[in-house]
Design a protein that fits this description.
GO terms for molecular function: ATP binding. Helix 2 packs parallel to helix 5. The chain has nine helices and nine strands. It is α/β, with parallel strands linked by helices. About 40% of the residues are buried. The structure holds adenosine-5'-triphosphate. Adenosine-5'-triphosphate binds next to strand 2 and helix 1.
């Protein structure tokens, strides 16, 4: 395997319970890959292992290049401006130049001086994506893009991600409860069920798979 991210035979156990069981997954370079699954399937555990926050019991994780993470819940500094929140994303790489991010996400330029805490959920999600881009990543891990956001806002975010992906060479791993959105946006997808990869393949094929439509797409 030679993807931007290769996860091989990953197993994570919490006291007694197995959260991930022999999970293998690849994110191809310059592609968008989705990980979908119900509550408790193990998605957060996989993101934590990828971000180095928990140590797997078994398996390997290989990331080629720099990985940046858009965390579930955005995690803004609410009293700081959008501009300062973005700069925090460039802290590790000593990048203070926000101009390229404003070029990629022009909606952010209009709100650059606003307090992050005064923004809508959709705007905050955009700031969280911009902040991750400040690290000049090769791989972007987006945890629950659509959580808590109105459908119209999600559509706008998806448009931005499509443009971003067309403009910049970037591998994206999208962890998402909204399977329809994930399969529509991404090239490949993995379905996680009770800690195991139940299905994977091209997103378009999974979107037509009766097992996926019945369990994740409301039977349509
Ligand atoms: P959600 O969408 O609700 O966050 P998830 O797919 O991210 O769900 P995980 O949070 O990764 O799922 O949890 C996977 C399994 O591991 C669940 O059964 C959960 O109860 C269990 N689990 C998660 N964290 C811990 C922990 N710290 N200690 C024990 N069990 C845990």
């Amino acid at each position: 395997m030679t993807g931007a991210v290769d996860i091989g035979n990953l197993t994570v156990r919490y006291a007694g319970a197995t959260a991930l069981d022999d999970v293998s997954l690849s994110v191809a370079e310059n592609e968008m890959t989705a990980l979908i699954g119900a509550n408790g399937a193990g998605k957060s555990t996989l993101v934590k292992a990828l971000a180095g926050l928990i140590r797997p019991d078994q398996g390997t994780i290989t990331v080629r290049g720099r990985l940046a993470h858009v965390p579930e819940g955005r995690e803004m500094f609410p009293d700081m401006t959008v501009d300062d929140n973005l700069r925090l994303g460039g802290w590790r790489t000593r990048n203070r130049n926000t101009a390229p991010v404003y070029d990629l996400l022009p909606d952010l330029a209009a709100i650059r001086s606003r307090r992050a805490g005064s923004l809508s959920g959709g705007q905050q999600q955009m700031v969280a994506i911009g902040r991750a881009l400040m690290a000049d990543p090769d791989v972007l891990v987006i945890d629950e893009l659509s959580l808590g956001l109105a459908p119209m806002i999600v559509t706008a975010l998806v448009d931005h991600l499509r443009t971003l992906h067309a403009t910049r060479e970037l591998a994206v791993l999208l962890i998402e409860q909204n399977a329809r959105l994930a399969l529509d946006l991404c090239h490949h997808a993995y379905v996680l069920e009770s800690g195991r990869i139940a299905l994977h393949g091209p997103a378009a094929a999974l979107a037509r798979d009766p097992r996926v439509t019945a369990a994740y797409l409301g039977g349509h």
